[in-house]
């Protein structure tokens, strides 16, 4: 199994965190109202701290509030209305040594809200961050979420009104949870985990069939699946356990017992090493 870029960045961040000097944090608030935007590409970059994402109030293009170390970072607030591209977050000033502050009230933070009614092609790149992201209420054409050394909780609490082209989630040395993935309304999903615990909850409102590739290098993978969903699993594992309860193997593929009668289907390609794959069947869609 390969250890991808997010994991390498995560480990580097952890190694440089020890002994970092104290930071002087500045607070910055920024927002913009909607002016007839019908489509938007959003790129968010955030190196370290606490990150929170929510849908914005109606009429708001974005609203952002952050606390950051002005000696090491420069805020990014770049909007190209003609191209429909919005860039937000922080960029570093040369070489950066990251300080780890845990739950300290003086920890760097970024609170971001995005327009709920505008179709979004959304990319989020986080470093050593503790993240909570609520995508329910956003209109997602595509989503790419990348994180390094972090604890990430992603929620899709409401059905995406658009047919999402692609969903890509990449986690390095992380504790990573994604809930309500059916509500993302994405036909193609790709999830990559480096080192840590990955929990994927495929409950929500299903509108069609989907496929997902899941790669976990060193860690555990927990899958939560609704009983009404037909599921296939193509498995490539090395020293990784797999609970086959609820599945029947046919050749190299595991089929859920209800596959033939299910209205919607999820085809999973799993790759795992040095860990375990756990499957939990649930009755409700949430």
Keywords, please?
286 residues; mainly beta; 16 strands; disordered N terminus
Distance between the termini: 32 Å
**Mean of residue pLDDT?**
86
The SSE order reads HEEEEEEEEEEEEEEEE
Calculate Rg over CA atoms.
20 Å
- Helix fraction bin: under 10%
Question: How many structurally independent domains?
Answer: 1
The helix count comes to 1
Anisotropy-based shape: globular
Largest sheet: 16 strands, mixed
Structure summary, number of beta strands = 16
Q: Give the class from helix and strand content and strand pairing.
A: mainly beta
- Strand percentage lies at over 45%
Unreliable parts: 1-20, 96-103
Summarize the structure.
This protein has 286 residues and is mainly beta. It contains one helix and 16 strands.
Give an account of the 3D structure.
- This protein has 286 residues and is mostly beta strands.
- It has one domain (7-17, 25-216).
- It is 5% helix and 59% strand.
- It has one helix and 16 strands.
- It has one helix at residues 5-17; strands at residues 25-33, 40-55, 60-69, 73-80, 85-92, 109-114, 120-134, 140-147, 150-155, 166-179, 188-201, 210-226, 230-242, 247-250, 253-256, 265-282.
- It has a 16-stranded mixed sheet that branches.
- Strand 14 and strand 15 (253-256) form a beta hairpin.
- The model is unreliable at 1-20 and 96-103 (pLDDT under 50).
């Amino acid at each position: 199994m390969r250890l991808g870029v997010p994991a390498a960045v995560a480990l580097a961040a952890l190694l440089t965190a020890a002994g970092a000097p104290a930071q002087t944090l500045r607070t910055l608030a920024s927002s913009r109202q909607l002016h007839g935007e019908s489509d938007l590409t959003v790129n968010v970059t955030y190196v370290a701290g606490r990150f929170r994402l929510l849908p914005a109030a109606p009429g708001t293009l974005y609203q952002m509030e952050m606390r950051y170390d002005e000696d090491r970072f420069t805020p990014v607030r770049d909007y190209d209305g003609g191209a429909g591209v919005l860039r937000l977050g922080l960029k570093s000033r040369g070489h950066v040594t990251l300080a780890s502050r845990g739950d300290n009230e003086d920890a760097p933070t970024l609170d971001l809200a995005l327009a709920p009614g505008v179709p979004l092609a959304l990319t989020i790149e986080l470093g050593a961050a503790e993240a909570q992201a609520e995508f329910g209420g956003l209109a997602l054409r595509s989503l790419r979420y990348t994180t390094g050394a972090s604890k990430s909780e992603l929620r899709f609490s409401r059905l995406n009104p658009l047919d999402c082209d692609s969903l890509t989630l990449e986690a390095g040395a992380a504790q990573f949870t994604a809930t309500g993935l059916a509500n993302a309304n994405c036909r193609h999903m790709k999830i990559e985990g480096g080192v840590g615990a990955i929990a994927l909850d495929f409950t929500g409102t299903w509108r069609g069939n989907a496929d997902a590739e899941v790669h976990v290098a060193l860690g555990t993978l927990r899958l939560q699946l609704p009983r009404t969903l037909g599921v296939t699993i193509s498995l490539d594992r090395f020293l990784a356990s797999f609970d086959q309860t609820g599945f029947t193997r046919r050749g190299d593929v595991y089929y859920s017992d209800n596959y033939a009668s299910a209205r919607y289907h999820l085809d999973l390609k799993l790759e795992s090493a040095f860990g375990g794959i756990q499957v939990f069947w649930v009755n409700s869609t949430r």
